[in-house]
Amino acid sequence: MKRALALALLALLAWVAATDAQSRFFDGKTVRIVVGFSAGGGYDTYSRVIARHLGRHVPGTPTVIVENMLGAGSLIAANHLSKVAKPDGLTVGNFAGGLVLAQVLGQPGVEFDARKFEWLGVPSREACVCALTKASGVTSLAAWMAAAKPVKLGGVGPGTSTDDAPRVLAATINLPIQLVRGYKGTAEIRLAAESGELAGGCWQWESVKSTWRQALESGDVSVVLQITTKPLPDLPNVPLASSLAKTEEARQLINAGVIVPTEIGRLYALPPGTPADRVQTLRAAFVATMRDPEFLADAKRSKIDIDAMGGEELARVVQDLFKLDPALVAKLKGILK
Fold this sequence. Notes:
Structural class: alpha/beta
Oligomer: single chain
Shape: globular
Largest sheet: 6 strands, mixed
């Protein structure tokens, strides 16, 4: 009994010492969340809400700020996190989950190894939808499939749902699509669609319904397709892309190419080599933030959904992407090259 109490006391003292060490490290510091997309888009919205609350859950209560590092569908930010950012626990990267698949497929420009990032988690397991304007004339899947010419959709860059989803849809269910790439983020895609330059685009529903809410409510924008395993509660009558697939291979391509990368779409990670104690501290702070009533109220006001995945689970999902069947990887590589 005395031995057990002594061991428990030693464990408590070790925990107190570790917490105190982390408090001393983060006290007075600034943690940067580097977002790979432009201000005003879905990634930026999530990160700014998180930044308002994360610091309270980190020992030492550091200041948390958001910086936008645009380019190549967040690939620049991901590469920066891997090659430039100091692994000291003061830089958090927020980039597209599709970039993990981009590495699996051997796509050019990837200068990181996703298996070496220290994952904090994702705030919401997300689903991809395709939203198009009323002015485009495509307000239903039937109208899209019957379109006389390819429907113009905006893209940010390889590894993002804006690019990858249209390519997979065109290859698996033969939707007529013309992908127009080079936009800096979904905010620019929305503006281009509203001006008539595009018909719309495909990206996370949580972002679409938050940042395009007024157009959805007025009927100026419609969600005509969802790329999910089952209908979203908000979209019970919108067709599923997988239900239109005529082969098992097509369904697997939709799942591996769009559904899984989108589910982990809003990745938060630390640079490779970040000290283990700081990784655990920030993972715990991320989870605590996701459960914080003040944060959840702020998220609700900001019209963003929270369905979080912790760092350990996210790490397993990432590892599983590297175990895809080689034949499927080859097929996806041809589609997304």
